[in-house]
Amino acid sequence: MKIAIIGAGAAGIIAAITAKRLNKNLHIDLFDANKGIGKKILASGNGRCNISNNQITSKNYLGENPDFTSFALKEFDFKAFEKFCKSIGLLLDIKPSGKVYPLSNEAKSVTNLLELALQELGVNIYLESMITDIEKVEDKFNITTKDNEYKAYDKVLISNGLGAAPQLNANESGLDFASKFGHSFNPTYPSLVGLKTDNTYNGKLQGVKKECNVSLYVNGNLEQEIFGDVLFTSYGVSGFAILDISQLAVLNLSQYQDVKIAINFFPKINRNDLGDQIQTLFKTIPSQKAVDIITGMVSNKIAPVLLDICKINIDTKAADINAKQIKALAYQLNQWKLKITDTQGFGHAEASGGGVRTAEVDNKTYESKLVKNLYFAGEVLDIVGNRGGFNLQFAWASGYLVGKSLGK
């Protein structure tokens, strides 16, 4: 039996290894547009490779139907993943947060071991091979690249992801191929990405970083709250809390909803107590400028912007700040609202949302319900995970199930 796998990422690699282990007589050709396999694996975790997470449920995913992931995550749970890693010689470092890294703390060791496993099993790897077309003639598939044509495949797996990280040759050709075979897909959007805001003072706050509580509002309704790092940038906001909240924010933004976030700089202090603390500071040093005193609480970049938003003159002395203005300052620090207008785009996104509709794919075999012997796995499907190894774990799990199907 002859099989083509489009995309040598996590899903495509584990599908090839699993299938070959089950049936050594399979002929498997693995195609990738890059010069090496697993480019997104290499990029994960800032090069340290956040390869998985040991605390995963379907609630860690977004999509039209996140429960679609349940069977795969159960069949290929963390214990199964750990066993697979040991089978290729890869030992893991499991952090208290649930994040999982290679014990070597180096992503390259992961791709090296995966490549050795592929080579040992006799999987044919075609690098720098961008697929331009897939067609089915009777019951066989033909694959076309820029320079060659590969014919008569019995089965094809599309696992070449979506548009996140175009600098790694990421693209949405998988959706084009899916559409050609009658599949529909939900609009794609960048996920785990910095957010652009419509404020004129963005540049003035560039570089300010603080642990804050971030609340997401969609059409005025509170949808999510996350605590973590917030980094102000020239375009808006980033940082771990923003990346996390961006998933739901951008999903709603892509559906033309009104999306805002509110940043609480002092989540452990309620608004009234914060106001009392500001008032006490002002009374202690009444002859000093209010803007200078506030820098004892927040960054010196935030202080003048804060006063401007609260319509307080930059030269106002602490003694001249009235109770109403103190209340306004406390409110702003407790609820710094920002309207989200856009994202940094796919070039800065860690993952892509949207993709091939899961209703058209079997959740146990990942075979197309529309075209026999056509399979999908990983990011090309309308499933996107939280930050922290969840996207890679779905890629491993979905690819594993495809591999079992291909190996039969």
TrEMBL record:
Domain of life: Bacteria
Pfam families membership: HI0933_like (PF03486), HI0933_like_1st (PF22780)
Domain RsdA/BaiN/AoA(So)-like insert: 189-350
SUPFAM superfamilies tied to this protein: FAD/NAD(P)-binding domain, HI0933 insert domain-like
Keywords: FAD, Flavoprotein
Record flagged with keyword Flavoprotein: yes
Domain RsdA/BaiN/AoA(So)-like Rossmann fold-like span(s) in chain numbering: 2-404
PANTHER family: OS12G0638800 PROTEIN
Protein name (database record): Flavoprotein, HI0933 family
Organism: Arcobacter acticola
